[in-house]
From TrEMBL, chain A:
Compositionally biased spans, kind Acidic residues: 46-55
Iron-sulfur as UniProt keyword: no
Protein name: Spermatogenesis-defective protein 39 homolog
GO CC terms: early endosome; late endosome
Organism: Balaeniceps rex (Shoebill)
Region (Disordered): 42-61
Main location, first listed in the record: cytoplasm
GO BP term, example: vacuolar transport
Keywords, ordered alphabetically: Cytoplasmic vesicle, Endosome
Compartments reported by the entry: Cytoplasmic vesicle; Early endosome; Late endosome
Automatic annotation (TrEMBL), chain B:
Family according to the record: Belongs to the STXBP/unc-18/SEC1 family.
Recorded topology in the membrane: Peripheral membrane protein
Keywords per UniProt: Cytoplasmic vesicle, Endosome, Lysosome, Membrane, Protein transport, Transport
Function description: Plays a role in vesicle-mediated protein trafficking to lysosomal compartments including the endocytic membrane transport and autophagic pathways. Believed to act as a core component of the putative HOPS and CORVET endosomal tethering complexes which are proposed to be involved in the Rab5-to-Rab7 endosome conversion probably implicating MON1A/B, and via binding SNAREs and SNARE complexes to mediate tethering and docking events during SNARE-mediated membrane fusion.
GO cellular component, one term: early endosome
Stored Pfam families: Sec1
Compartmental location: Cytoplasmic vesicle, Autophagosome; Cytoplasmic vesicle, Clathrin-coated vesicle; Early endosome; Late endosome membrane
Keyword Transmembrane helix: no
UniProt xrefs under SUPFAM superfamilies: Sec1/munc18-like (SM) proteins
UniProt name for this protein: Vacuolar protein sorting-associated protein 33A
Residues spanning the membrane: none
Example of a GO biological process term: protein transport
Length: 421, 601
């Protein structure tokens, strides 16, 4: 590491984490530092301008004149290339949370703060704050000579403060683990990630994983880091090897959302069932798999029926969307709508669904009622509530309150007589 | 424009000034004409620090939003990217830079400003894409605590709660500590620090450590804040789940307030011209800024919504009377006086018109049957009724497929008011939710359990009634028009967090030791040394100033409650509020829901 640069300030601003260059490994980090130095120019401390108080003016559309979002609209629209819809940039101006488009999902929001090595207190002193807050000037300690034998604790503290540290000195496994524990104790995500990057590079994978099994905080950081850098293979290996924490199974399960193809998704879910979830969750995942399986079968059948044009019901009420990936209750509604009369044996009959997924009576009756009412099949509605007792008399019974029944009937414009009944 | 920042006990303009100074310095570093490419998320918070006019002073001629593809044409010397250190944004920047026409002259220089911190990961990413060298200046702009109003600061860190409580990532706490150090640099060392919660403990430790690392660097500023109170959000999980009932709280619940701006449906705001029919209604939502610079708003924002109507009608009478004055003005002098006051009166009238429209919009919702049913169930839970059984209203709502977040708020509220649900009840709710809304919500339910919002009852004992009784959280005799207690903000429920702050000031936390032990996390007190010359001698009758920092989010209702305490005559303390994010129940639960949309490839 050369300190040929006379610019002392500039040196202390540069990236704090880099490996020892003498080892001549192709370390991107040291190269990064070099290129950064080459590119950075001297900072000037500029005098403050006088501030002026701007009056708040509002344009006719309600956008405060002079606000940033207004200015984006104004200046951008005057450029030759058109942004799609002045509206979008205008609206998106300040409603950042609602309107921000969800981008590539493999990066998490936590990357905002994680995996970064901040320049910490050094940044504060660069501003004019320095002029009237002398305590924010860099402490004398930072100007001390660079020495190469800091203990793990000191190394971590130095890294936290944004100073350059070579981690290569920690050669033995013991040292490395102590370093990691110190980093975790310091609660600084950046330092932990930096140490993990070093360990990932210098430790055998099995050893690293074994040690991380008992250090859950560091494990979480490594997982996030791998997610962000897209090292899927390493990530999946890690997940497979460390099954003690519930969240790992779930992050595996979460992956199913990235699989668009239904068949592949079904396969994936089947694989998830084997993972050690808690008892209730296992049954839910199992249900999910079974449901998707059923949906695939129903979908292929129904699509066939629809195109064949033979079935009356499909002709009268053509399907608006596929049943794949829909929730269970929606699926039940669909089957009550299109397949009400089928026997229990078929996959698409409502009674089969009820039995397989143990849908409670209340839910079943409500859904069936809604479906049949929509089709105006009042006889079926009647039959739902009529039970014959052993004397042969019919009785009206419903697991849900009758006021709800009437409500649903009214919504579907049932003839008054049916409601009376 | 700084009126709303200097109106409080502590003048927060200085904080904004520091922010502006840093921004100016950076802009001046990139000499020549500039165009700024914005990360959309930042335009809101930045708008609170600096408006376009300030940027224009520093030769910023064009502003664009960050999007893939080619950068728009602009005849400027410098192009600066203002971005958060996120990898997907780096991809877009790379795309922009690579598509830049190298042949065109004059060539444009690129710079990048990371907010609030640089990221080694991002810079490495750019390097791998081969564009790192194209940037001449790569800096960071530390935007920690942003002043929202004279007594309100926020970091606007959306993911702080999720990171701290679900992912064990305390980097946002580090930023909170940094923000507090900046505050202390501007307003003096805070002599007393109280806190409750794990994260509070971490922040306090970090503050003390940071202070120690600058030995002998005491500043000579007279301390403005007497006390700092750090509170974890998970000490009080109940309050954000309940529906807020103050005027500002309801606006946030229904329409969402972002960076002091709200977007409203435009129909009621169409300017009514004389003699013309109401044709050509505007289709764009009406955007309004809400802060204490607007007199009327400052008066009604913290009132219970039921008390707002009478204030508005009184104001209407006053303003009409004022306008009528012109008929009584006889002398030229009087007319002149009237004319000079005209702008103020017109502003007051348009302000009144706006808020009357907003109040009407809100009233439509609060008088609906659904709102009433929802509120009834909430209040039953908060007063401890039937929290251990499956609730019929919730079941009905699930069956009718009401929005999932509404269901989750109610179910979590029941769980918190019962110190966790019985396993059978919990399973029943979970099953119904998964069957109705889809199995993928297992992930959300798991997050909620981890956060402590929806979990099984572990100890078999319900602590909530004890906490409720000792801290007097439920007050039956609440007066919404002329409140005498903070419980008016939820029409009966006093926010637990604010109660803790109230009791800390008087008589102190020793009196509630037992209850404090029932709440999660340690409680502690720290003192920071002040140089002898700065020991404050309080004048008789002068109030103490306490800074309350909510780690994980704060609601407008809680802010209203703290303001109520500030203006109580014999209260003795004035409050300034800081937080990681301004939240309401809906945005809070949403931040805990996993991103369930698959990648749009």
């Amino acid at each position: 590491m050369s300190r040929a640069r006379a610019d002392e300030e500039e040196y202390w601003h540069s990236s704090k984490f880099r490996a020892f260059t003498f080892d001549d490994e192709d370390d991107e980090l040291s190269q990064l530092k070099e290129s950064k130095r080459a590119v950075n120019s001297l900072r000037d401390i500029v005098d403050d301008d006088d501030d002026d108080d701007d009056l708040e003016r509002v344009s006719w559309s309600g956008e405060p004149v002079g606000s940033i979002s207004w200015s984006i609209k104004e200046t951008a629209s005057s450029s030759t290339s058109s942004l799609e819809g002045r509206d979008s940039s205008l609206q998106k101006g300040s409603s950042s949370y609602a309107a921000f488009p969800k981008q590539v999902s493999s990066y998490s929001l936590s990357s905002l703060f994680k995996g970064e090595l901040c320049l910490s207190l050094s940044a504060l002193s660069d501003t004019g704050v320095k002029n009237y807050a002398p305590e924010l000037r860099r402490p004398k300690a930072e100007y001390k000579d660079y020495s190469s034998d800091w203990s793990p604790k000191d190394t971590v503290r130095r890294m936290q403060r944004g100073k350059v540290c070579s981690l290569e000195r920690f050669r033995s496994l013991q040292d490395k683990l102590v370093l990691l524990d110190e980093a975790v104790a310091a609660h600084d995500g950046n330092v932990i990630t930096a140490v993990l990057i070093f360990l990932k590079r210098t430790l055998r994978r099995e050893i690293l994983f074994r040690e991380l099994e008992v250090r859950q905080v560091a494990l979480c950081h490594l997982i996030h880091f791998l997610k962000e850098t897209g090292e899927q293979k390493l990530l999946l290996d890690l997940l497979r090897l460390c099954f003690f924490s519930l969240s790992l199974q779930l992050s595996q399960y979460r992956e199913h959302l990235n699989i668009q193809d239904v068949e592949k998704r079904r396969e994936f879910l089947k694989g998830c069932i084997g993972l050690p979830f808690s008892v209730e969750d296992t049954s839910h995942i199992q249900d999910h798999y079974t449901l998707l399986e059923r949906q695939i079968i129903i979908e292929t059948n129904d699509r066939h029926l629809e195109t064949a044009g033979q079935s009356e019901i499909f002709r009268k009420y053509p399907r608006k969307a596929s049943i794949l990936n829909m929730p269970l209750v929606t699926t039940l509604f669909y089957s009550c709508f299109y397949h009400y009369t089928e026997a229990e044996g078929t996959f698409s009959s409502p009674t089969n669904l009820k039995k397989t997924f143990k849908i409670p009576d209340k839910q079943y009756v409500l859904t069936a009622l809604a479906a049949r009412a929509k089709l105006r099949a009042w006889d079926d509605v009647d039959a739902l509530f009529t039970t014959k007792n052993w004397l042969g008399y019919t009785k009206k019974k419903a697991p849900i309150g009758f006021h709800r029944v009437v409500e649903i009937l009214q919504r579907n414009n049932a003839p008054v007589q049916v409601s009376k009944e | 424009m700084a009126a709303h920042l200097s109106s409080g006990r502590v003048n927060l303009t200085a904080l904004r000034e520091a922010g502006r100074r840093e921004l100016r310095e950076f802009l001046d570093k990139c000499a020549g004409s500039k165009a700024i490419v914005w990360d959309e998320y930042l335009t809101g918070p930045f708008g609170l620090i600096a408006q376009y006019s300030l940027l224009k002073e520093h030769e910023v001629e064009k502003m664009f939003t960050l999007k893939p593809g080619r950068l728009p044409q602009a005849d400027v010397k410098n192009v600066i990217f203002f971005v958060r250190p996120k990898l997907e944004l780096m991809d877009i920047i790379t795309d922009n830079v690579l598509r830049e026409d190298r042949g065109r002259s004059p060539q444009r220089d690129f710079h990048i400003l990371f907010v609030p911190r640089r990221s080694l990961l991002c810079e490495q990413w750019l390097k791998e894409q081969g564009v790192l060298g194209s940037f001449i200046h790569r800096e960071q702009y530390s935007l920690d605590l942003i002043p929202f109003d004279g007594d309100l600061l926020s970091m606007e860190s959306e993911s702080a709660f999720k990171e701290c409580y679900l992912e064990s990532d305390q980097t946002s706490l580090y930023h909170a500590a940094k923000g507090l150090m900046t505050l202390q640099a501007l307003y003096g060392t805070i002599p007393q620090i109280f806190g409750k919660g794990e994260c509070a403990r971490h922040v306090a430790n970090m503050m003390i450590r940071m202070k120690r690392e600058f030995p002998g660097s005491q500043n000579s500023i007279f301390p403005v804040f007497d006390t700092l109170l750090l509170l974890d959000r998970n000490v009080d999980l109940l309050t954000p789940l309940a529906t807020q009932l103050t005027y500002e709280g309801l606006i946030d619940e229904i329409y969402g307030i972002q960076n002091t701006y709200v977007k409203l449906p435009p129909e009621k705001f169409a300017p009514k011209k004389q003699g013309e029919g109401g044709k050509d209604l505007p289709t764009e939502p009406k955007k309004l800024q809400l802060n204490s610079a607007e007199e009327l708003y400052a008066e009604i924002r913290d009132k219970n919504f039921n008390a707002v109507g009478s204030v508005l009608s009184k104001k209407a009478k006053i303003i009409s009377a004022a306008f009528e004055e012109r008929h009584h003005a006889k002398t030229v002098g009087e007319i002149k006086q009237f004319v000079s006051q005209l702008p103020h009166m017109q502003a007051a009238r348009s302000s009144l018109a706006n808020h009357t429209s907003i109040a009407e919009l809100i009233k439509d919702i609060t008088t609906s049957e659904d709102f009433f049913d929802n509120l009834t169930v909430e209040q039953e839970f908060m007063s401890g009724i039937d929290t251990d059984k499956v609730n019929n209203y919730i079941e009905d709502c699930i069956a009718q497929k009401h929005p999932l977040i509404k269901i989750l708020r109610l179910v979590c509220l029941q769980s918190v008011c019962n110190s966790g649900l019985k396993q059978k009840v919990l399973d029943h709710y979970k099953r119904e939710i998964l069957q109705t809304y889809g199995y993928e919500h297992i992930l959300t339910l798991n997050n909620l359990e981890k956060a402590g919002l929806l979990k099984p009852q572990t100890s078999g004992r319900n602590n909530y009634p004890t906490i409720r009784k000792t801290l007097r959280l439920w007050m039956d005799d609440v007066n919404e028009q002329n409140p005498n207690d903070i419980s008016y903000v939820y029409s009966g429920y006093a926010p637990l967090s604010v109660r803790l702050a109230q009791l800390l000031a008087r008589p102190g936390w020793r009196s509630i030791e037992e209850v404090l032990k029932m709440l999660p996390g340690p409680h502690f007190e720290e003192r920071q040394q002040l140089p002898t010359g700065l020991q404050k001698k309080r004048q008789h009758g002068e109030n103490r100033v306490t800074l309350v920092f909510f780690l994980g989010g704060v609601t407008y209702a809680e802010i209203a409650a703290l303001r109520f305490l500030s203006q109580m005559e014999d209260g003795g303390t004035e409050y300034v509020i800081a937080t990681t994010k301004l939240i309401n129940g809906t945005s809070w639960i949403k931040s805990l829901m996993d991103k369930l949309e698959p990648a749009p490839f």
